[in-house]
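hey so u asked for the seq, here:
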Amino acid sequence: MYIREALVIAFHSMRVAPLRMVLTMVGVIIGITAVVVLVGFGDGARKNFNDSFAPLNTSLFISKTAANVPGGNAAVPLRESDVDALSRPGAAPNVAQVAPLRNGSAVARLGDREYAVSVGGTYPAYLQARNRTLLAGRMFTDEENHDRVRVVVLGTRVINRLFDGDVNQALGSEVRLGRLSMRVIGVLNPAGDDQDNLAVVPLNSSRPLFGGADNVNMIGAIATGVDTVPAAIADINRVLDDRHNVKDPVSGTTTSPRRSPS
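ran it, structure tokens below
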């Protein structure tokens, strides 16, 4: 009954006030269109943000604690075996890639030119973990790291000092890094500050430059997605706490001392 009366009233209003009907319809159409446009704009902006900043949103960095926790044990250095543990299939399911970093410095030489550079021994995933891109050439591969191939990716400041900024001349050239001869295979895009004064080499190839030590200064980890970052952090804490025998992560105390598996 009420529906029939409502329909009668509606049709009567449409007959006696057609202009009002048209304006109402136009208002409804404009409102719906505005909502659709705004939703589409928001989705597009969200996608562009995720595409641009997803590498930063999913990157995690692990370093040795700067100081001992009161009541805890002495901080233990990170080692290559920690990297292997995190990389082991199934050990950290929410971690997609791991990129250790061993920092140091060396003198880069080309002929009679010399330039002091920062050296980073790492894995190919370094680029994604640090949100860096290549200006030219390529990054080294996992196979080259495994085989200790002596290749290097240089920052633009090093290219400017040794090759007068000629990227094409740099690619394929042999440079001395400390006492090692390295073949230039890539050039990093400029990042500013000291990030352009960098020589990136395979972690295994960097060992002679650092006296054969298996310590690493930092471990970069990449979560499988933005939504899995908390789970990735939990995975990393679980694996490293187990390796370093951490009994109480808050206080830093450990179980009875034992050597971590390598």
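The chain is about 40% helix and 25% strand. Confidence is low (pLDDT under 50) at residues 251-262.
lmk if thats what u needed
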